[in-house]
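sorry to bug you again but im stuck and you know this stuff better than me. what follows is a protein written twice so to speak, once as letters and once as structure tokens for the fold. id like you to explain what the token line says about the fold, in plain words if possible. anything you notice is useful, everything is just below.
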Amino acid sequence: MGYGSNACNVNNEGYVKYKNGNVVRNSGGVCNAPFQCRNCNTGYYPVTSNNGYCKACYKPVYCNLPVCTSSSNYWCEYCVGEYIRNKPGYNVYSGLPNSKVCQRACSWENGARCFPGSCTGNMILNRDCKCARGFTSTNCATATAVPTIKIMHFKVSTQANDTHMLIVDKALGKVKFWTKYTDLANISYQITAYYKPEIEHAKTPNYIHSYYIGIAEVKVVLTLIRDSATADWTRDVSCTNFNQYCSGSLRDYLISNMHRWKTILNNGKFKHADIIRFRVSAKNGGKVMYQDRNSFNAPYQIRHYYLNGKSTYATLDLAFDEVPPTHCFENNKTCSTDALKADDFVTKPNLTVYWSGWYDVDSGIDRFEFNIYYLESINNGPLQYRNMLPATIIDTKLNSAVLKLEEPGPYSIEMKVHDRVKNAKVTRRIIMYDNASVVELVGNKSCRIIQAQPSGWVNKFSDQIEIVWTGRFSNMRHNNGGWLNAVQDSENVAKILDDQNARSIRTIEEMPNVYGIIRFEIARTQELFGTVDYKTFYRIPDDYVLLEKMVFTDLQLTDGKKVTYTIRGVDVFGEFAEDNSSFKIDLSPPVIEHVWLRKGNLINISMHDKLDLSDLIIEWETLDIHSGISEVSWTIFENLTNHNVIYGQSYEQPQGETKTLSGCRRKYRFHSGGPNCYCTPYNGCFHKHF
């Protein structure tokens, strides 16, 4: 290598770009001594190897103009896009704070804009850039936060002055609404979406000129759903300038103009199980204005970029429900739960009612309403509603309630089960309240045995014994008030849910009764020769209740037996009164024996002339060990000429005035025949010698 201006220069040794845009690829330099160069071009340095030349400095990545004194002592004097190093925000790459590297700076260039966000200090992208909350990506231009649908208000109504009008509103805190009105004709809505970014304006990078960040778009989609068919009606809400709020409204839009819905509605009404789905979507976004500083001198050109927004949506459903609540018994006859249960007969005014088995698969059960009706009978006709007590409302969480009755009498307890759109179904139970139920014995009536004599003796054989008690028992209040009469039908109550078919004791049907008595019970006591046999009360068959009698065909008629029947008349509350009737049995006649004539001390003599009658005494023994003697008479006559010639006759006392055997013997101790006494089981003791 020689001396001179080109001795150190190496063509295409490197690539150096100056701020003025000039590119220098040759190393330059001059040789001033063997193996020594000087005055190398900027970006190159002298070395002594290879006879000495100007060598390219080590060039850091993104460095336009490296500067060095040796291979290890280097720095970058001018990075790519570095217009004003000491002024952050004006450089694409920056040699601050370490001039040995060129780092990507926050700038106007795509990928390094760092806005919405802040970039402070030397504004090095990967160190000093912080995206605002709700944004991400290298540009911070992609939203992660969603807007808020602040107002989502729909109104559906009929055409006739909003006769049936329903509000579907997000502010009500539910996502599904229900209606039973299928004649809806108009739809109105009011929509507002809101979004405000969390940006610290004071920390906005200096190359950002201005920005508009808010709601980019709002869309309303109304979908009609029927079975598997769907149809959409869409309306875009006009949102301008990325304002924080974007609102839209529509007033009384005719459903008949929603052409896509016509394929489902077919010019008809809505029907049960249809759904109108209200869907509102909102997307945020923004437009950011920045200075394009790809030049060294102001004024800078203003350019813009758009933010990548994020969408959100809210959905509200309006479903149609024309079907009232259901009790399981209506669809499944094996259902054993009661639609409404209560005691049939109560003695206190507090009535506890129970229910279960109710459901509503559509809008759901809203409440249970109890209406209590006092019943009355007019002219002994069916019981009908007289007046209603104040209604009682019960929450759906409960399955029992205590209701307050007022005056004693029959009541209809109606439970009205409401769903959330005011469809309702009614069930009822008939009950009676009486705090002073009394069964009385009617004074001028009695129980009697048909086969018995007025004296209470059965003296003729019969294959049956019949006891009757016509009109003897009565519950006057129940009878006179018609409390047990049938209950008039109610058009509000479905037959299947009414109090009938033995669902309870006191149903809507008449309770068969006799003067307020619903059943009779009978007990029997038999006495024979000191032995007592008792058969406790049992219910008289229904066939005999209305006849007020009982017939027995199994009673053995034995002389000397005493039978007592005790009749019990019972009302619906179990209150009762008792009466009884007794009879004795004597089917055999009295015994007459030992008839003789006495004259003085002579007995059993014969009479030879009717004149002897004045000196004779007739004696005999008469007894009846079952019922005793009631009447004794005798007659003396002859009948030789086929017609009676009476010589004497008389009626004698039955000689039964004593109650005990000893008393009888005392009384007749001086009788000519001695105290010949006997006692009957029921009528005292008798002297049998006459």
Q: What stands out?
A: Residues 285 and 309 are 4 Å apart (CA to CA). The first helix runs from residue 125 to 128.
